[in-house]
Amino acid sequence: MRPLEISKREEEYLEAMYILHKNKGVIRVKDIAKMMKVKPPSVVDALKKLAEKGLVEYEKYDRILLTEEGKRIAEETYSKHLLLTRFFTDILGIPPEIAEHDACQFEHYVSKITVERIREFAQFIQEECPYVLKQFLKGKLEEKGKE
Amino acid sequence: MRPLEISKREEEYLEAMYILHKNKGVIRVKDIAKMMKVKPPSVVDALKKLAEKGLVEYEKYDRILLTEEGKRIAEETYSKHLLLTRFFTDILGIPPEIAEHDACQFEHYVSKITVERIREFAQFIQEECPYVLKQFLKGKLEEKGKE
DNA sequence: AAACATTTTTTGGGTAGCCTAATCAGGTGA
DNA sequence: TCACCTGATTAGGCTACCCAAAAAATGTTT
């Protein structure tokens, strides 16, 4: 079995399904469509392709599940998402909505090395010199009310 | 101002043309193709669309130029590119090729706020506590040829 | 169970972006 | 001048991703 190609968009679908499963237990076409900001027919298209690639268990009108491999990819992507979002909010002081938006795109492109380095950097700053961070963030976080 | 929509890919074409113009003075289809890693016909397609949107001056077999608006967009994108690349290399200690790769994607998605905040953060760290940075980067910059 | 409501799927079609192969334009050397 | 070479363009076609409208299945209510 050769290395299957997965597009950025498919990665997003997997991530959406993963989050739905985690939060609601059930994965429905309607909800995927809402999260992905597309219409249901587009979701069905995506599901068929992902099923062919062995990333999703899908039979029409039946329940939708991620396979082990699909789940692995989704988790990997989602963990990048969380890390990037935290970095943007906690280190750079970006408002949550913007941080979310930026992370949501970058997570699909960022290299492993950069992810790891961001993790190390955030940890280093927060543990070794939290006061430096506090000083930088002063006046930045409260633009949205309170800290 | 028309409500023209510009795709990420078109932004990349503009940026490539901007860099070619800056470095070689002339913008040729062949060189754009090489930079964009596509074949010449794809470049011609892109040029036609960009010309329709008023971002490029293009008449077939004639010289290619960015319009003022095209140049403005390209410069804006390119400045994000430079900033992100510098951030990845100088603050996070990412190897140049990886930094380039990551910046090259993120530049098309990153919000203005995040760009500005990254600029401020880099400046803050480098000016106010360069020793902290030095400490973090110790041992990271020389790890070349690893994956 | 029948009627209605909701969800999912199919059908048919559209756009963006890329390609190969063939053709066209312009410069250059015999 | 003409034959050749390179670069640019057109023609035709492909895949990914999206949509609206209609049809099919499922869920719900009475």
Question: What do these coordinates show?
Answer:
2 copies of one chain form a homodimer. By secondary structure, the first copy, chain A, is mostly helical. Chain A folds into 2 domains: 8-66, Orthogonal Bundle (Arc Repressor Mutant, subunit A), CATH 1.10.10; 73-144, Orthogonal Bundle (Diphtheria Toxin Repressor, domain 2). Helix content of chain A is 67%, strand content 3%. Chain A contains 7 helices and 2 strands; from the N terminus they run H-H-H-E-E-H-H-H-H. Chain A has helices at residues 8-24, 29-36, 40-52, 68-91, 96-106, 112-128, 130-137; strands spanning 56-57, 65-66. Chain A has a two-stranded antiparallel sheet with strand order 1-2. In chain A, a hairpin with a 7-residue loop joins strand 1 (56-57) and strand 2. In chain A, helix 2 (29-36) crosses helix 3 (40-52), helix 4 packs across helix 5 (96-106) and helix 6 packs across helix 7. The longest helix of chain A is centred in the middle third of the chain and has 24 residues, at 68-91. The relative contact order of chain A is 0.10. The model of chain A has no long low-confidence stretch (mean pLDDT 92). The A-B interface holds A 88, 91-95, 98-99, 101-102, 105-106, 109-111, 113-114, 117-118, 120-121, 124-125, 128-129, 132, 135-136, 140 and B 88, 91-95, 98-99, 101-102, 105-106, 109-111, 113-114, 117-118, 120-121, 124-125, 128-129, 132, 135-136, 140, 147. Chain A binds a DNA duplex (30 and 30 nucleotides) through residues 7, 9, 28-30, 38-46, 49, 60-61.
